[in-house]
Amino acid sequence: MNEENYPFFNLAIDRRSIQKAIKIFIIFFTFVLLLTASWIALTEFKDVSLIFLFSVLLAFLLDPPVGRLESRGLSRTNATFIVFLVILLIIAGGIYLLFPILSHQIKSIQAQLQGDFIKQRITLVIQGFQDKFTFLQGSDLTGKMSSVLATIQENLLNFALGLFSALSNLVIIPFITFFLLKDGPRLKKGIIARTPNRYFEMMLNLLYKTELQLGGYIRGQLLDAFWVGLLSVFALKIIGVDYYFFIGAIAGLANMIPYLGPVVGAVPAIMVSLMQTTSFSPILWIVIAFAVIQLIDNVVISPLVVAKSVDIHPLVIIIVIFIGEQLLGVLGMLIAVPVTGILKVLVKETIWSFKNYRLL
Amino acid sequence: MNFIWSNIFRDKKDAEDNTLELLRKVPIFAELKKRELSEFQRISHSRSYEKSETIFWEGEPGVGMYIIQSGRVQITQKCDEHSTGNILAELKNGDFFGELALLDDSPRSACAIAAEPTKVIGIFRPDLLSLFDRKPHLAISVLFKLADMIGNRLKATNQELKKLQEKLNTGKTS
What dihedral angle (degrees, nearest 10) is formed by the CA atoms of A34, A36, A39, A44? Predict the structure, then answer.
C-alpha cells in the first residue's frame, strides 16, 4: 500500500504530539475535577460555600478603600480595621435611622399576611378587572388568585427563613472577610511561592489578571445593584407605594438577574399598589418608574460601574439563572450571573495563560 | 528558648538584609532610601532553580525581572525543550535580567536558563503596579531610572547602527 496515496496513514505521531495530547487530557481532566468539586461544594456544603463566596465578594468590594488607606502610610492591618470600623458605623447608623421604618413595615406586612385583608383586596381587584374586561366574568379568578397567593406566601416564608439563616452568618462572614482582606497579599504570595517553577510566571499573571477583572466586575455589580435599589426606593416613595423600602431593596438585588430583574422588582410593587388602592392608575406610574430606572441603569450607571470585560451571552444568562434556581432557589438566581462572570474570567484567563505559556 | 527565637528571627532578618543589598545593586533601585527599598523587598519573590532549569522561555509573556542571588544564568535564543540554543550572555551574582517586562507583557526576546543551581529574586509587574498604586511617589523614581536605562541602551544601539551604516556605505563606495 503506497502511503502517499493515503494521507490518513501518513500521520506522523511523534513524541511531541503524544506529550501534547497527554497535557490536553490532564488539563481537561483537572478542569472536570474542579467543576465536579465546585458542584459538590455548592450542593453538599452549600452553607460553607456560600459563606466563603460572600466573604470573597465582600473582600473584593472593600479592597480599594483598604489600598487607599495603605497609600496614606497605614499598615494593611490598621487599614482593614479602619475600613471595617467605618462600615460598622455606617450600618449601625443606617439601622438606627431606618429601624422605625423597617419595624413598621415588617409589622404591617405580618398583620396583613395573617388577616383576611389581602383576600378581601384580591376580591375587590378582581371585581375591578371583571368590570373592565367582560370576557373575564364567570371564571373563578378569585379562587385561582387565592391559590397563587398561598404559593407566594409559602415561598415568601421560605425566602424569609433563608434570609434569617443568612443573617445568622453575619458574624462569620465579616470575620472571614477581615482576614481575607488583611492577609490577602500574604495569602497570594504563599500560593505563588508554592507554585512549581514551570508554572510560576503563569500563575502570577493569571492571579493578577483575574483579580483585576473580577474586582472590577464584582464591585460594578454591587454598585449597580445599590444605585438601582436606591432609585427604586425613591421612585416608589414618590408614587406612594407601601413598603417602598423593601420593594426598592428587592428591586436593587433583583437587578443582578439580567432581563428578569426589572420584572421581579416591578411585580411586587404593582401587587402591593393594587392591594393598597385597588386602583389601576398607579400601575402605569410604577411601570414608567421602573422603565426610567432601567433606562438610567443601562445608559448611565451600568456603563460607568460594570466592567465590559465580562460580557455574557444572553442565552448563557438565561440558562445559568435556571441552573441557579434549581440549585439554590431565589438566592441561586441572584448569584448565578456573578458566579458565571467569575467562572468566565477564570476560564478565559486560564486558557490565555495555557496558550501563551505553551502548556497547550 | 530565647536562643531559638532569636535565631529564627535573625535568619529572617539576615535574608531580608541580603535581599535589600541585592536590590540596591540594581540601578533602578540604587537611589532609594532603605525604607523605600524594603517596600520592594516585601513584593519580591525568592526562587531556586536546578542546573539546566529554564527560568523563562523565549516568546512567553514577560511578567517581571530577576536578580541573581547566587549561581549563573545563561541568556539564550532559539532555545526549546531539547536544546539551550545560542548563548547570548552569561550572568552571575548581582546581575539582573528581564527588566523590560516590568513595562509590558510583550513576549520575552530570549530564554533564561540556570547554568548551575541558582537562586534569584524576582520583582514582577503585577506587584509593582499594585505598589505604585499604593505609593505613587515610588513609581516616579523607579520608572524614571528605568526610562533612563532604556534611553541609554537606545543611544548605544543607535551608535552601533550608525557605525554599521558607515561601514556599509564605505563598502558600497569602495
Answer: -110
